[in-house]
Amino acid sequence: xxxxxxxxxxxxxxWWAFFVNIAQMTYKGLLGIMTGSAxxxxxxxxxxxxxxASSVTMASLKISAKPADxxxxxxxxxxxxxxxxxxxxILILGAIYLIYESFMAILAGEISAPNVAAVLxxxxxxxxxxxxxxxxxxxxxxxxxxxxxANAWDNRSDALSSVAVLVGIIIxxxxxxxxxxxxxxxxxxxxxxxxxxxxTDAISGLMDSSIEIEDLKEVYDLVNDIDGVEGIxxxxxxxxxxxxxxxxxxxxxRNLSVADCDRISDMITExxxxxxxxxxDVLVLMTPxxxxxxKKNLVIPDSA
Length: 304
What we know:
By secondary structure, the chain is mainly α. Helices cover 66% and strands 11% of the residues.
């Protein structure tokens, strides 16, 4: 984590997203009705779905912060993957409805060019959502939060849809009114794709996918350099919401005492949790081996 206030941003970012989405839903909906832009009204509906998604994210962050208990010894972190999946489903359902309404409008011949003022609404929406995406993406990355990252991609999808709406409105105003509805359909397919990707990532997380290989390599190098560690038998880790859980089996000199092994284990846990961001739990297992040749130094301070 780069800065101390990243944790504070974690608690604030979703509230910002919630209120920004309400504001966007309101002004795009009103402007869409006033200007007669089907694409802008569809984009307002997308923002309405974002309000629900932000609410789901807020709830998941609160639940995931609960400490581990007897029924959930690994904590409640995986609720964030469920939240991410719900956000993806909301996006997919909203997009399907958007595509259907726009397609039926074209078939019914209910096509008219929107007022040029609709361009302003689409442009402002694209800018606002891109800024919210960058803000939430930064917070999600620094806090390793899949729920906040899903919400960030929700805003990115809204930014992309607003760009498509903007292009459609401009073309429609220039004398091709069907472009407004075609833009709404294009938006729908883009949003469906993002929703599918969010659900794919959520399923992967719930199935205990491995942590990033770069993190595993960093853990390997840190532990292998600790005095008393003669090698590493195996190393693995998994994501539990925002937290990383690591399991490592190290080789130690078979002649070491139990007390020395415990101290090595403590050193490994402390070093990994301190050096690797978001590691919450380190399970250390030990395999005694016969050390042949030059032995690694063992310098372990006595506990005071």
